[in-house]
Amino acid sequence: MGRGKIEIKRIENNTNRQVTFCKRRNGLLKKAYELSVLCDAEVALIVFSNRGRCYEYANNTVKSTIERYKKTSTDSANVCPTPEINAQFYQQESKKLRQQIQMLENTNRNLLGEGLGSLNLKEMKQLETRLDRGISRIRSKKHEMILAETENLQKRELELEHENTFLRAKIAEAERLQELNMGPGPEYAFQAYLARNVLQLNLMEEGPSYPRLPEKKNLHLG
User: Fold this and answer.
1) Where are the domains of the chain?
2) Which DSSP state fits 115?
3) Distance (Å, rounded) from C-alpha 193 to C-alpha 187?
4) Measured between alpha carbons, how far is 31 from 157 in angstroms, rounded to an integer?
5) Is the dihedral of CA 127, 130, 132, 135 positive or negative?
6) Which residues touch 57 (CB under 8 Å, ≥6 apart)?
7) Is the pLDDT of residue 194 over 80?
8) Parallel/antiparallel/unpaired status of strands 54-58 and 44-48
9) When you count CB atoms within 10 A of the terminal residue's CB, does the N or C end of the chain come out lower?
10) Tell me, what's the pLDDT at 221?
């Protein structure tokens, strides 16, 4: 079986990225050496790692090859008009952007489960791993949101309970004040009852007050 197609993009795993860098750097240096020997070409190669380490190869010297490159570039710039250089630059940039857009569209389609026929087994496993990580992050975020919502609801429940207790106390106070405003209390009613009984007894002892008739005189005959 032939080697499967490898998607050209940044390797996320640090260990895999470092191993790939070492392998491909050595292969690139080897190819530069072979090109210089087989074709009698002047070759200079400079590679900087992501940690800032420099790796170079030159069959002459790197400095002399760079000076030759600068001279050649300057001569070419004097011959080639500036508008044409700008047009070529923008065409290359446009091509790169179209390629990046195409790669992103393919990646999105793959994440949606579409266009999987062009992927090999290794790429399918990588895609599955990405999806698992994404789902794990989504679930974690959803769990955090549920916990936060639950805490807010519990706080709101306590606030409502406090408000309910406060309102009950206010209602009880209002009812007590209403009872006091509607009439006298029991002590006052009892005093009024006693006063009425005393008044009745006094009236009974005095009797009814009728107008007195004139006294009859006894008539004596003979």
Assistant:
1) 14-60, 119-199
2) S
3) 10
4) 73
5) negative
6) 29, 32, 33, 43, 44, 45
7) no
8) antiparallel
9) C
10) 43
Q: How many residues does the chain have?
A: 222
CB 115 within 8 A of CB 109: yes
Report for 129-133, 176-180, 192-196, 218-222: range of highest mean pLDDT? 129-133
- How many other C-beta atoms lie within 10 A of the C-beta of residue 115? 13
Q: What is the DSSP string of 139-184?
A: HHHHHHHHHHHHHHHHHHHHHHHHHHHHHHHHHHHHHHHHHHHHS-
> pLDDT at residue 174 above 70?
yes
- Indicate the pLDDT class of residue 214, thresholds 50, 70 and 90: very low
**To the nearest 10°, the Cα dihedral for 55, 58, 60, 66?**
-80
Between CA 114 and CA 110 the distance in angstroms is 5
Q: Which two tokens stand for residue 170?
A: 């206010």
Cα 122 from chain centre: 33
Closest CA to 127 of 105, 104, 103, 110: 110
> What distance in Å separates the CA atoms of residue 126 and residue 9, rounded to the nearest whole number?
13
pLDDT at 222 over 50: no
Q: What is the pTM of this model?
A: 0.35
Q: Check: CB of residue 124 under 8 Å from CB of residue 7.
A: no
Place of tokens 């989504």: 138
- The identity of residue 76, as a single letter, is S
- Residue 52 confidence (pLDDT): 87
Lowest-pLDDT range of 74-78, 166-170, 218-222: 218-222
